[in-house]
Amino acid sequence: MRRHTRRVYNLAYRFTGNRQESEDLSQEVFLRLYRTLASYRAVHGEFTTWLTSVTRNLLIDHYRRTRRDRLTDSLDDEKSPAEHKASPGRRPDELASASELSEQVQSALQKISPELREAVILRDLQGLDYREIQQVLSVPEGTVKSRINRGRIELARLLSGMGVQPE
Q1: CA dist list (Å): 10 to 71, 135, 148
Q2: Where are the domains of the chain?
């Protein structure tokens, strides 16, 4: 469990954009894994791919359950002080720039469709290869590549509109 906690939490956070919600969803993923561990078969893929599939399915269920709530929530939720904690060794201006960029990327991710968002997150933030993403999403590899490409284009468009320019 400890080995995979960060992967599950990061995926949940990138999908929801909310620290507390991501922690709750991560716990729910591990409860679901515990209950369904007997259904895992190594011949069908690696454990991390199965773990990502379980996480994705839970996130989709959560997205569907909370769709109405998100329409009325403010996008400008106040962040806790822990989310702004500095890491040692980086200058304050670098930290501020990285934090601002991270917030802008997270905001832009929330604005693209869930299908494109999950493909981009799985590829660019979780580092899964196309075949693993194909297994997680249960779509053809061409669809995976298309979603990643369209997601990146949409993300770049949104970030450009926010004034973020590629380096």
Answers
A1: 23, 19, 18
A2: 1-70, 92-167
Question: Residue 85: its pLDDT value, please?
Answer: 52
In angstroms, the CA 45 to CA 27 distance is: 23
Using one digit for the tens of pLDDT, what is the confidence trace for 56-79?
A: 888 888 877 776 565 555 444 545
pTM, two decimal places = 0.55
CATH topology of domain 1-70: Rna Polymerase Sigma Factor; Chain: A (1.10.1740)
CA distance 34 to 28: 10
CA proximity to 166, closest of 154, 158, 156: 156
- Domain 92-167: CATH class, spelled out: mainly alpha
Cα separation, 132 vs 53, in Å, equals: 9
Per-residue model confidence as pLDDT tens digits over 110-139: 899 989 998 998 898 888 889 889 988 899
> What is the spatial distance between Cα 165 and Cα 167, in angstroms, rounded to a whole number?
6
User: 31 by DSSP, 3-state: which?
Assistant: helix
